[in-house]
Amino acid sequence: MYTASGKSDKSYLLREHVPLVKRLAYQLKARLPPSVEVDDLVQAGMIGLLDAVNRYEDTHGAQFETYAVQRIRGAMLDELRNTDWLPRGVRQNMRKIETALSELQQKLGRPPTETEVAKSLKLTLSEYQDVLNDSGGHQLVYYEDFHDPDTKEHFLDHFCIDDTGDPLQDLLHEDFRDAVIGAIDALPEREKLLMGLYYEQQLNLKEIGAVMGVSESRVSQLHSQAVARMRAFLRERAWTGLA
């Protein structure tokens, strides 16, 4: 749609692409923890759409929707990174745990115990469990995983289906889903049970504790450790090409 002067009608472009913003927001929300509100994603996406409308020129040689999708997704990811609440120090501690889990798994040929991981990190068992407690909310995929400033290449890149660099499509790809299933299957039985109760049965930590006969705090520790095992598994499969 164009104005009388032959320019793209910006108000028309804005109105017509509101459903696109909502669709992209729900696609992203499906891959994020419950604490993320879809309305916040939509709001950020609308800012991205407005930016796309204001910057777009027909001479770009691309369809507006193609250009807008990049701006909308970028705005949503920026919003997620800005609201990411897990402290950087905690994230770094969990990466150390992921590395220890991976190295011990390779050395022992089985999932390492908490005591073994603690010893590898030169921590007492109590100190190790405190680190797990501090990382409550540890996630399989972090917002910074899309554009990790600490590494030139992130393990998610190995699950790309093409060279477009689209992180949302990476997560939707069959290879990534299969790898996640493999990571769950590789968990110790107790942690596998916990993940099933939490994500499939949608029980809260207190309810899971009642089922497993442990405290809510203990469930949080085991959840953090299970997610760290899964991230370590995915990293290993990415680097060895087994995903």
Indicate the CATH topology of the largest domain: Butyryl-CoA Dehydrogenase, subunit A, domain 3
- Helix segment count? 12
Helical coverage, percent range? 55-70%
The major β-sheet equals: none
CATH class membership of the largest domain = Mainly Alpha
Give the overall shape, derived from the CA principal axes: elongated
Structural class determined from secondary elements: mainly alpha
Average residue pLDDT: 79
Share in β-strands: under 5%
Order of helices and strands: HHHHHHHHHHHH
Query: What is the second-level CATH architecture of the largest domain?
Result: Up-down Bundle
Low-confidence stretches: 1-7, 158-168
What integer value in Å does the Rg equal?
A: 21 Å
GO biological process, one term: DNA-templated transcription initiation
Protein name: RNA polymerase sigma factor FliA
GO molecular function, one term: DNA binding
Function: Sigma factors are initiation factors that promote the attachment of RNA polymerase to specific initiation sites and are then released. This sigma factor controls the expression of flagella-related genes.
Describe the structure.
- By secondary structure, this protein is mostly helical.
- The chain folds into two domains: 10-82, RNA polymerase sigma factor, region 2, helix turn helix motif (Rna Polymerase Sigma Factor, Chain: A, Orthogonal Bundle); 88-240, Butyryl-CoA Dehydrogenase, subunit A, domain 3 (Up-down Bundle), CATH 1.20.140.
- Helices cover 65% and strands 0% of the residues.
- It has helices spanning 10-16, 18-29, 38-55, 64-82, 88-108, 114-120, 125-134, 167-172, 174-185, 189-200, 205-212, 216-240.
- Helix 6 crosses helix 7 and helix 10 (189-200) packs across helix 12.
- The termini are far apart.
- The model is unreliable at 1-7 and 158-168 (pLDDT under 50).
